Amino acid sequence: MKIRTNFVGNSSSSSFLVIFPTKINTVEELKTWMFGASDKYIQDISHDDIQYSSKQICETVFKDIFQNGKASEEKILELFEDDWDTYDEIRLYLKEKYGTEYTFDIKDKEIQEKAREYERRLRKEIGLRRYKIFMQKVNETAQINIFEYSDNDGNYQATLEHGGIFDRLEHIRFNHH
Question: Is 8 in contact with 144 (CB distance < 8 Å)?
Answer without folding.
Answer: no
